[in-house]
Design a protein that fits this description.
This protein has 38 helices and 17 strands. The protein is of the alpha+beta class and 883 residues long.
Length: 883
């Protein structure tokens, strides 16, 4: 015989009128929770687990109530479960929401009893949220707040007076307050605001399984409307009332079951109420739910299953909300039907198929409908029945369909629309049409890359990139990135850029290089859609090289004319450069909201303008170093003379700076630094000056002092300890033995430091450290952020003597850690290496830093044994930081 659940025999016996011990109830709850977990491990559905949890809590609370609340008080008080507890949807650490209904709120004995009850429930470990109200107070609160009436609607009585509870339900019935129409409108407004909190996207790195679009709250919203409208207790009644099909109901309930199970595991792993799919938990959840595969395969499969589930729920929510709108808001309004185009008509501004056989009789209508909406912005959406017809007609999208010239012509016409393209491609993705029409797209729907660099699923990223590209063409946004908007205005075929957006990551997740594979996909698409060979080549080239500009800007010294000339040679023409620049900017913006900074904006702009200059001159007439040096000197001298600075004094100090200085600095920097050095008369004291914002989009720190191997260590440690990020470091030693060091820094938000007190603090801290190089500052100990703990620290250190003449390039790739740069600086100092330049690049969870160094005699490191020793030293140091 199966034991009763929960087993109340675990609760100690106690004299009448007294409660058993806290430990007895804690044991009951602990034993019950363990029993539920055993059910989970045995494969029980999540709906069983949450029902059992509700049953356990019910039994516990009622048991306490019966021993605490005197019988004669029962007619005057009722204990009501509300919220998720009212729905019997309790997870291991869900709040227990209670409404304590009283017939009067000034009864001292009742108030004392309630206080004892709530205190006892907290003491045994239940997270209780409660309110005490009379029926009139319930009505008043419900009228004022839709969430209150929602709680009352899904309530159930646990104990106390049945008549008191029934009277409350009667007083708050839809005939008296919150008629279905008003309730529906309020809930839709609530959902819109909830979506807006997540920027209308759930396809992010750490989605909220409950509140994000497509999450459990979407299903609950449907259930609330159904209950208010039909008085229904079960979503199954949607099928009976012909709102959804049995198959759609099955999809909805399977999606809910999947999300419940994930949420159950979340609660179990964290030991608290947690609704965010935290990055550092995703791998553990995947393992717990039985996903398998090497590397990141299991966790990426799990996340893809999650994202595809919420896409289905989001689609069903959209369809049902529209059906409710028709039933609740439009039922008293004469229908406005407009027959305006073959195959379609609008009904109350929503487009619908002319009849049920529209797509079977004319399959190209599966693409035409999105083109029609884009051309007619007054259309508010697609009618629910037509969404269903589209979903049912997806099998019609086969190779014959994809090669139909009517279809390919309409798809290209959609890409050329001035408005609505992004919205319609999102709609096509949500309905499954985009993945059916572009088979390569199917693999990336809901695909997440398990890293901190890409915060969106691949399909969402592609649509985000396209959205940013579209913004470049809209006048209202031209102040965001003026150069991009200016270039975009002169691009005659913007659809080429949109196709590059769609295809640039379409091959992610396939074996092989995704850029190369995507470029091949473009060639197939070009043939199907009648693109010219020139257009196809341009799109294919952009897809294959979409990372080229970003990598060049961030990992090479773009002050070096040789780097610019080589990049220009690879790009080949101004047309290709313009397209690549726009794609690069949109790609970075659409990868991660925090990735685009003023520094990257200016870095890419500098590379673009320098390359543009080379291409205008002609590839056969490249810019050489001497020309750049003379130009920088001339412009800087003009700026200095405009500031009344003596030409003779300038020439005097410039003779010590060396040609490399004028090659690597821009004229405005040379002017500013020259003035600072001329004003600095106490040469034995380090000069530290700051510019809060420069043309490079960063705060610039300039250090002029006697050269020392400890300078780089001291400076990087101080800057790092202040929570600033160094994005570039240029270290030049003058012929007089003084350093001309520049550090470009940004704050944790990727912006220049603008607060005067912070600038003073930086300057004073650096001044103090540089005056006491005998005692180097100690790196501050800071906690590693939780997401980084999910990664193994795969450290790669390499050396190259061919990147820059006379310098050894040390490349370090490792997991980002607090204080990493200062630790690396100490390693280099320990090896008696001089740092001449540093390119600092953080890509999500990893850093890709390059240090250009020499030995103490300013010679590159050519000894293989010495290079190996340096690499091993850095490797050991980074491993020790990780441990």
């Amino acid at each position: 015989m199966q034991a009763a659940f929960p087993d109340l025999s675990l609760v100690d016996a106690a004299p009448k009128g007294e409660l058993p011990s806290y430990s007895s109830y804690r044991a009951l709850l602990q034993y019950g929770s363990q029993s539920i977990y055993e059910k989970f491990k045995a494969g029980a559905p999540a709906s069983t687990l949450i029902a059992m949890r509700s049953q356990l809590v019910d039994a516990t609370i009622i048991h306490i109530w019966q021993r605490l609340v005197d019988q004669y008080l029962h007619p005057h008080i009722a204990l009501i479960a509300v919220g998720g507890y009212g729905r019997r949807e309790l997870l291991p650490h869900s709040d227990i929401d209670l409404l304590i209904l009283v017939d009067q709120n000034d009864n001292t004995e009742i108030n004392e009893t309630i206080s004892k009850l709530v205190t006892f429930l907290w003491d045994i470990g239940l997270q209780v949220g409660h309110s005490v109200r009379t029926i009139p107070e319930c009505v008043t609160e419900a009228i004022a707040d839709v969430t209150v009436i929602t709680n009352i609607m899904e309530s159930r009585q646990l104990a106390g007076s049945p008549s008191l509870y029934e009277n409350m339900l009667d007083a708050t019935a839809s005939e008296k307050i919150w008629a279905p129409q008003a309730f529906f409108s309020a809930k839709i407004d609530e959902q819109k605001k909830r979506y807006a909190k997540f920027n209308n996207s759930a396809y992010r790195l750490e989605p909220n399984i409950k509140e994000s679009p497509g999450g459990l709250r979407d299903i609950q919203t449907i259930a609330w409307i159904v209950k208010r409208y039909f008085g229904a207790l079960d979503l199954r009644e949607l099928v009976e009332h012909d709102f959804i099909t049995a198959e759609e109901f099955s999809t909805l309930t399977k999606g809910q079951e999947h999300l419940w199970k994930i949420r159950y595991v979340l609660h179990h792993l964290t030991g608290r109420e947690e609704d965010r799919l935290l990055f550092n938990l995703q791998r553990d959840i995947a393992d717990t739910l039985g996903f398998t595969g090497g590397g990141n395969e299991a966790v990426e499969q799990f996340m893809q299953s999650y994202y595809r589930t919420i896409m289905e729920i989001e689609r069903l929510n959209e369809m049902l909300i529209q059906l409710f709108q028709e039933a609740l808001l439009f039922q008293q309004t004469p229908e406005k039907i407009v027959e305006f185009i073959p195959h379609f008509r609008t009904r109350n501004n929503y487009i619908e198929a002319a009849h049920d056989e529209t797509f079977n009789e004319y399959p190209p209508a599966l693409i035409k409908i999105f083109l029609v909406i884009a051309k007619n912005p007054e259309i508010e959406g697609v009618r629910a029945h037509t969404i269903r017809l589209i979903r049912e007609s997806l099998p019609l999208i086969d190779d014959h369909f994809r090669n139909d010239v009517r279809v390919t012509t309409m798809f290209m016409e959609l890409l050329r629309q001035p408005h609505g393209l992004t919205h319609q491609l999102r709609r096509m993705n949500r309905y499954g049409v985009l993945a059916a029409y572009l088979p390569a797209f199917q693999n990336i729907v809901g695909r997440m890359q398990y890293d901190l660099f890409h915060v969106y699923t691949v399909d969402e990223h592609i649509l985000m990139v396209l959205s940013h590209m579209r913004r470049f063409a809209v006048d209202a946004y031209k102040q965001e990135l003026p150069l991009c908007s200016h270039i975009m205005a002169y691009i005659p075929r913007k659809d080429i850029l949109y196709l590059a957006c769609i295809f640039h990551d379409i091959a992610k997740g396939r074996k092989g290089d995704h850029s190369t594979l995507g470029a091949e996909d473009v060639k197939t698409f070009g043939k199907q859609h009648g693109l010219s060979s020139d257009d196809t080549h341009l799109i294919s080239w952009l897809v294959k090289n979409h990372l080229l500009m970003s990598l060049t800007a961030q990992s090479k010294d773009i002050s070096d004319p040789a780097v610019i000339n080589q990049f220009a040679l690879t790009v080949g023409s101004i047309k290709y450069l313009q397209h690549l620049y726009l794609l690069t900017c949109a790609d970075i913006q659409g990868t991660n909201p925090t990735l685009w900074t003023s520094w990257k904006d200016n870095l890419l702009r500098e590379l673009y303008l320098k390359t543009l200059n080379v291409l205008k001159r002609g590839l056969s007439n490249p810019v050489d170093k001497l020309e750049i040096i003379e130009h920088s000197k001339a412009v800087a001298m003009d700026m200095l003379e405009a500031c009344s600075v003596s030409r003779q004094s300038v020439k005097h100090i410039w003779q010590n700076f060396g040609d490399d200085y004028f090659l690597r600095y821009q004229p405005d920097e040379i002017c500013w630094q020259t003035q600072a050095v001329l004003k600095h008369h106490q040469l034995e004291i380090p000069l530290v000056v700051l510019r809060k914002e420069t043309t490079r989009g960063c705060t610039e720190i300039f250090v002029y002092t006697k050269d020392s191997n400890s300078l780089f260590v001291a400076t990087t440690t101080v800057i790092d300890n202040m929570g600033l990020n160094i994005v570039n470091a240029r270290i030049i030693t003058s012929q007089s033995g003084h350093t001309l060091d520049t550090f470009l820094v940004i704050n944790e938000d990727g912006q220049p430091i603008t607060e005067p007190f912070k600038l003073d603090e930086i300057r004073e801290s650096l001044q103090k450290a540089l005056e006491n190089l005998g005692t180097l500052p100690v790196p501050m100990k800071r906690n590693t952020i939780r997401q980084l703990k999910s990664f193994e620290n795969q450290i790669k250190v390499s050396a190259d003597n061919t990147t820059k003449p006379g310098l050894t390039a040390l490349s370090v790739s490792a997991l980002d850690q607090p204080g990493l740069l200062s630790h690396l600086a100490r390693c280099l100092a320990d090896e008696n290496l001089r740092v001449h330049d540093a390119l600092i690049n953080t890509l999500g969870e990893r850093v890709e830093d390059i240090f250009f160094v020499t030995d103490e005699k300013r010679q590159p490191i050519t000894s293989s044994a010495q290079l190996q020793r340096i690499q091993e030293h850095i490797q050991r140091k980074l491993e020790s930081i990780q441990s």
